Fold this protein.
Amino acid sequence: AYRGTRNQLAFFTLAVLYEQLGLTVEADYWLKMLDRHHPDPLGRMIRRAYVSVLRGDLETLQDMAAKIAATGVTASPRLPPEIRQRLGALFTAAGRAEEGARLLETALRVDEPVGAGAASHELAEMTYVLAYAYQQLGEAEKADAMLERGHEIVSLLRSDDLYADSPTELELVVYRHILSGDLASAAVALRKALDAGWTNYYWFYNNPTLGSAARSPELAPLFDQALQRVEEQRRIVEERDRSDNFKERIALLMRDSDP
């Protein structure tokens, strides 16, 4: 279960989970493991970019975007849509809104209607990233259209009772309200997300597309509560890691799976 592409996903997931708790040293360990088992440099950079957003490491994001742009890969018509949209998000977060918007427009097929079967958390999130890119470019009408499109996607997701009040879908509501400049409504939605167990603190607090909204008077007290919850979880994980050599167990599983 720890070989090939499954290794890559496992290591990336572990890096993200540790970084979400503010455990950067541990996250770096799993990123290095990812580098060792991921043969595609572009894929590695895309995954590292997500962790850089969690860290608020804008300098690394900008460096990655510059290196990727220099390869010319973004102009390739063979670039898969899922890679195109992740690159679009990377470029937008790195402050290269024009390149990000171009990639996201084609990847998200914004001129086509979204059916219930196509709605997903990632699609809504990427649509909001495109809205932010348009805002940075001064294209208010396009930005508003993407905010509305994202709202439609989230409404489709929340029409399922299983996801109606899930913290992951509620954070999308917070995202839209922040981009719309309605911090009072964002606070209401964030309170609901916290009540549902939301803990995705670092992604929101450090995300360049959300600016300083988390530090606003409307939202800062709620983000402080979220941080307290994250810190409690971090203490639990640190204690568990002290009593259980998780890295060694994974290394043994990988060694035993070798042919």
Q: What stands out?
A: The mean pLDDT is 91. The CA atoms of residues 92 and 100 lie 5 Å apart. DSSP finds 13 helices and no strands in the chain. The longest helix spans residues 220-243.
